[in-house]
Amino acid sequence: MARRKKIYEGKAKILYEGPEPGTLVQYFKDDATAFNAEKKATVDGKGVLNNRLSEFFMTGLNMIGVPTHFIRRINMREQLIRSVEIIPLEVIVRNVAAGSMAKRLGLEEGTQLPRPIIEFSYKDDALGDPLVPEEYIIAFGWASQQDMDDIVALALRVNDYLSGVMYGVGIRLVDFKIEIGRVYEGDFMRLIVADEISPDSCRLWDIATGQKLDKDVFRRDLGSLTDAYTEVARRLGVMPANTPNTSKPTLIN
């Protein structure tokens, strides 16, 4: 197999040149990071679980008419995706006060919010991904007012879908973040959901016990991250009952 050209490497994924124009191969690493990469570890099997879970969620969104960059899963760690122009924002949807929001506002973690609240952070690791108001986004040209209206609509549809799926398996969707990309078809541009949707990018609590089943397990040293992610996958019927294949790739450099 020919070596693929690396396009980009982030904290949790690597993007390679795809087999066809307009495509990329997204590879999920086992690296875990928190606090803007101040805390790091390698968690065996994390990439496999996130690949399968992101496939599950992106496929579900595509099926209900929410466009995503996902095309198909290639193997246990890779998926074929559409190449998109990423808008430099993290779109955060909150249903319950937790994490930084609870700290900023002095709210008790777990407080149900009166409605889903959408926040935006500017994607820049050196700056710590600061929160930015919509006025900044439009003024600096990161997105237009029409883009923002479309982004909010997409984010709320993703929230409805994820909340329902998670509730059905006894999990509370506390919050999540997504990225949005632009794709061009001739003169027509549209916005689609990109990056990933996995326990790395969501807060997930067991409805009955409050047990955390997301990256807060790693952030707060609450136990095995693999066990938490495996439990999410098990409830959703994503992974078989046996231990996931955690083998490292040998054909990609």
UniProtKB/TrEMBL annotation:
- Name the InterPro entries on file: SAICAR_synt/ADE2_N, SAICAR_synt_PurC, SAICAR_synth, SAICAR_synthetase, SAICAR_synthetase_CS
Example GO biological process = cobalamin biosynthetic process
Task: Say if the entry is tagged with keyword Ligase.
Answer: yes
Is Oxidoreductase set as a keyword in this record? no
Catalytic function, reaction form: 5-amino-1-(5-phospho-D-ribosyl)imidazole-4-carboxylate + L-aspartate + ATP = (2S)-2-[5-amino-1-(5-phospho-beta-D-ribosyl)imidazole-4-carboxamido]succinate + ADP + phosphate + 2 H(+)
Q: Can you supply one Gene Ontology CC term for this chain's record?
A: cytosol
Q: What is its EC number?
A: 6.3.2.6
Please, which domain of life does this record's source organism belong to? Answer: Bacteria
Annotated GO molecular function terms are: ATP binding; phosphoribosylaminoimidazolesuccinocarboxamide synthase activity
Which enzyme class, named as a word?
Answer: ligase
Q: Which CDD domains match?
A: SAICAR_synt_PurC
Among PANTHER family, the record links this protein to: MULTIFUNCTIONAL PROTEIN ADE2, SI:DKEY-6E2.2
The entry assigns this protein to a family as follows: Belongs to the SAICAR synthetase family.
Q: What is this protein called?
A: Phosphoribosylaminoimidazole-succinocarboxamide synthase
Q: Which gene encodes it?
A: purC
